[in-house]
């Protein structure tokens, strides 16, 4: 049986096995190889086709017997195929994957083809690694844009970016800054986007989280954005074609992108205390075969005291600070059902933590059905007072709203139907 996989140093975050299972290029394994063992693995390892990620793309190109024109131009390969005669062929499907991503972005966000949108335009490419090289090659040689490399120590760096690239129309992040688990984070200094008046788009080739820190900033400023899942899927489509020795099945890309996105997005339940988030969340997790996290339970496990005890002994402000840290820890993960505390919306900083990787669902239960038992803030302030402050926040944060049906099971089933799970 043919053996495929992904070669890299740290691969725990990868969606590639899911994608290649859908493409038929499986079994697909994660080959986490130390730098000193890379040459032996590439030359003598038991594999038929591998994708290559950081930090081994340049070494993969060097060790191949035959290189495509793209690899010759870039000096980096993300796809290796062992041919029947044992020769290793290297290609770079990142270039094709980025072109497909840029085309999707341009048509969906700007209503034009990529060439119409960006030919002759200056594009800031953040990073100097293999991915950045592939992006710049695609921009310069296929789209006819003018890529400008930005790096920490280059001629154009993050301090001088606005002086050299102030007329840029697009930013592409090709660094790992902002990737899970260090999310949300941005490679740009605060305020940089505000100093780029011609900016018409932001693309981040990171795919986990679904919305990176850079794209959260763009979204807040009304700038069109897109993250890297389409590039990941498209490069896999082309790599799979090479693995299997056939034309790539481009017709499947859109459906795979949607399926992978839906599978890996968290479902975060928000709502008033007593609205049934925990019970409905547990039912939903069971129905959808997902892990379930109740942030209040996670808080207790981490802090050693319940939220009620911390509020009573240290005050609500201290509790909210700790709650945000618990939210940060879990909301950056993928494929979870998360039940939040009722007051998570009282801190604006919790919204990007949830929004980055979750579909947020507001469980809207009539106030007269809510219980105050075991809920110190509901008892102290009253349900009506809490609702007056929180209901507008729930509605503004929510991607979807469910009018509660009366039971946890039926609420969970309604959420499944609402989200198409």
Give the SSE map.
Elements: E1 4-8, H1 16-23, E2 28-32, H2 38-44, E3 49-52, H3 57-63, E4 66-67, H4 69-74, E5 79-82, E6 88-91, H5 93-110, H6 114-118, E7 122-126, H7 130-143, E8 146-150, H8 161-165, E9 170-173, E10 201-204, H9 213-220, E11 225-227, H10 229-244, H11 253-264, E12 266-270, H12 277-288, E13 291-294, H13 295-303, H14 307-314, H15 316-331, E14 336-339, H16 350-355, E15 358-364, H17 376-381, H18 383-397, E16 400-403, H19 408-419
Parallel strand pairs: 1-2, 1-3, 4-6, 7-8, 7-9, 9-10, 10-11, 12-14, 12-15, 13-14, 15-16
Antiparallel strand pairs: 3-5, 5-6
What does this structure look like?
With 421 residues, the chain is an alpha/beta fold. It has 3 domains: 4-91 and 232-251, Leucine Dehydrogenase, chain A, domain 1 (Rossmann fold), CATH 3.40.50.10860; 95-227, NAD(P)-binding Rossmann-like Domain (Rossmann fold, 3-Layer(aba) Sandwich), CATH 3.40.50.720; 265-419, 3-Layer(aba) Sandwich (Rossmann fold). The protein has 19 helices and 16 strands. The chain has helices spanning 16-23, 38-44, 57-63, 69-74, 93-110, 114-118, 130-143, 161-165, 213-220, 229-244, 253-264, 277-288, 295-303, 307-314, 316-331, 350-355, 376-381, 383-397, 408-419, and strands spanning 4-8, 28-32, 49-52, 66-67, 79-82, 88-91, 122-126, 146-150, 170-173, 201-204, 225-227, 266-270, 291-294, 336-339, 358-364, 400-403. The strands form 3 sheets. It has a 6-stranded mixed sheet with strand order 2-1-3-5-6-4, with helices on both faces. It has a 5-stranded parallel sheet with strand order 8-7-9-10-11, sandwiched between helices. The chain has a 5-stranded parallel sheet with strand order 13-14-12-15-16, with helices on both faces. A hairpin with a 5-residue loop joins strand 5 (79-82) and strand 6. Helix 1 packs across helix 10 (229-244), helix 5 (93-110) packs across helix 7 (130-143) and helix 10 packs across helix 11. The mean pLDDT is 95.
